[in-house]
Design goal:
This protein has four helices and ten strands. By secondary structure, the chain is α+β, with helices and mostly antiparallel strands. The longest helix is centred in the middle third of the chain and has 15 residues. The C terminus is likely disordered.
Length: 146
Amino acid sequence: MGSTEAFSIGKTEVTNEQFVAYLNDISPKISLDAKGETVTYNKVEIIRLSDRIKYSNGAWAGGTFSVVSGYEKHPVIYVSWLAAQEYLKWLSAKTGKKYRLPTEAEWEFAARGDQKQRLNIRRQYLDEVAGMMVIVESPISRTKSQ
């Protein structure tokens, strides 16, 4: 792995609880498929509802999303890269900080911790897990790390 610039990354993946806050904020502007299983916003498929996140209004906009008890702190699943970008736009607007997804090198560096060896991670696994780790960009000076 090449060098990476200094960065701050979330301690955990984005949780169902955090993502539901976003879904409830955009709820009046969403659309759902006929079965009420796939949520779309700004022409982007945001999430396929699962046994972890429920919606109160069938296939109609304006309902309430909730997390099934016991899954609040679990990582959100079934979120595409485009949906992650929409979430990050929302999170950045809410907090006044700029958030983005980590690069593959940043994710690997963070996952490796103090270990010096390169991680051998299947690309599919990396895409699924890294999909909702977020980095907050700060105005602090950046230094090169190995």
